[in-house]
UniProtKB/TrEMBL annotation:
InterPro entries: Ribosomal_bS20, Ribosomal_bS20_sf. Residues 20-32 have a biased composition (Basic and acidic residues). Gene3D superfamilies: Ribosomal protein S20 (1.20.58.110). The keyword RNA-binding applies. It comes from Pseudobdellovibrio exovorus JSS. The lineage of its organism: Bacteria, Pseudomonadati, Bdellovibrionota, Bdellovibrionia, Bdellovibrionales. GO terms for biological process: translation. The keyword rRNA-binding applies. Residues 1-19 have a biased composition (Basic residues). Keywords: Ribonucleoprotein, Ribosomal protein, RNA-binding, rRNA-binding. The gene is rpsT. This is Small ribosomal subunit protein bS20. Residues 1-40 are annotated as: Disordered. Belongs to the bacterial ribosomal protein bS20 family. HAMAP family: Ribosomal_bS20. GO terms for molecular function: small ribosomal subunit rRNA binding; structural constituent of ribosome.
Length: 90
């Protein structure tokens, strides 16, 4: 338990930030799963929208420090390559 007023405040802030970061991670993972599902089903109509959503959520998370920028860039690049391959195969 916190012994000082400032330590108690940092503990409260940590709890709030943990919740926010968890929510951001959840949105990214949901977007990634949705995109993977659409790629598997070859749903060409929804793939570009899902890629856009995923990219947006991932970059927001990277800007806030939830993921490193290199990780975000790598994941976006790999999924974009899969999307291009899926759409060009049509």
């Amino acid at each position: 338990m916190a012994q000082h007023k400032s330590a108690a405040k940092r503990a409260r802030q940590a709890v709030r930030k943990n919740k926010v970061n968890s929510d951001r991670k959840s949105k990214v993972r949901t977007g990634e799963k949705s995109l993977a599902s659409a790629l598997k089903k070859k749903d060409a109509a929804s793939i570009p929208q899902l890629l856009s959503y995923y990219t947006s959520q991932m970059m927001k998370a990277a800007q806030k420090g939830v993921f490193s920028k290199a990780t975000a860039s790598r994941k976006i690049a790999r999924l974009s390559a899969q999307v291009q391959k899926a759409l060009s195969a049509k």
